[in-house]
Amino acid sequence: MTHMGFKLAAAVLWIVTVVSVSGCAQPKTLEAEPVLTWPAAPSSPRIKYVRSFSAAQDLGITPGFFRRLAEIFTGPDLTQLVRPTAVVAISDTEVYVADPGVKGVHRFDLRHGRHAVIRRAEGQPLPSPVGLALGLRGEIFVTDSLLQGVFRIVPGADGAQPFTLHTDLSQPTGIAVARDEGLLYVVDTSAHDVKIFDESGALVGRFGGRGMADGEFNFPTMIWRKANGELFVTDSLNFRVQQFDGTGKFQNKFGRPGDGTGDLSRPKGIATDRLGHIYVVDALFHAVQIFNPTGTFLLAVGGHGREAGEFWLPTGIFVSGDDKIYVADSYNQRVQIFQYIGGGE
User: Fold this and answer.
1) What is the distance between the alpha carbons of residues 12 and 343, in angstroms, rounded to a whole number?
2) Measuring CA to CA, which residue among 110, 109, 179, 86 is closest to residue 138?
3) What is the per-residue pLDDT across 94-121, written as a single tens digit (0 to 9) for each?
């Protein structure tokens, strides 16, 4: 029997089996998530663990009959997170995760029960997707450091299209979008600066340069833009976070090297919530550190491990409009979700 004939026979046998047992199949029961809050009692809780996911099945997304049939010939889709680096949630029902391990971006569509790995045209890989940002029209912008470019995923698209920039990038990593102004802020790590582009891809500004002075960088990585236009950049090898206005004018800084609370070792992802709290992912501390709007340390969440609420070289973070906190827990091959519950302070 030829190889194709064997696969066809296997498909027929599988169909018969599915049809005969489908009436007895039971839906998968999701395990109860642990109840975890920070800080520990008797202090009032501020952060609550919600859940984590490592694959589409963890979110209740399962392939339909015809997709499973097709997988006999094409092989299974890569629904498992391999090395997630960044995450964006458009809502509770649509989450994007950049994953160099699958050379693409996962789209988890809970509303329609679908999962896809988005790559470039004709299935060409995104070999090193690092940063994600949400655009004005619901599109997702992706930086790929090896391809030295920015790509755009429009809603419902199966592929990422190049976003043409009129200035070369050396090592794009973090990205943020000023949705009210149509500006794109791209961290160029090995150039030690942040470049600002308009909607046409024209360079309209830049700030930074290598150094240790205010407004200078030493291998910056990620960036976050608040609704009021303020920008926060993790200045990784200066072991600090710097804050700028929308034009790149320096405003503030916090952080220092060390191994104590509030110190920074390898800051990566950064985000803020509605109250202005600043969340900084520190990969080497395996934690998320939380600061007040002026940079005073408040609380740390995490520690090295594989249990719920622990991390292993986390990288990216995203905070949604309802203060839900998504963390790309890279070497645990998952995204962990938390919720700010501390009230209005």
Assistant:
1) 57
2) 179
3) 999 999 999 999 999 999 999 999 999 9
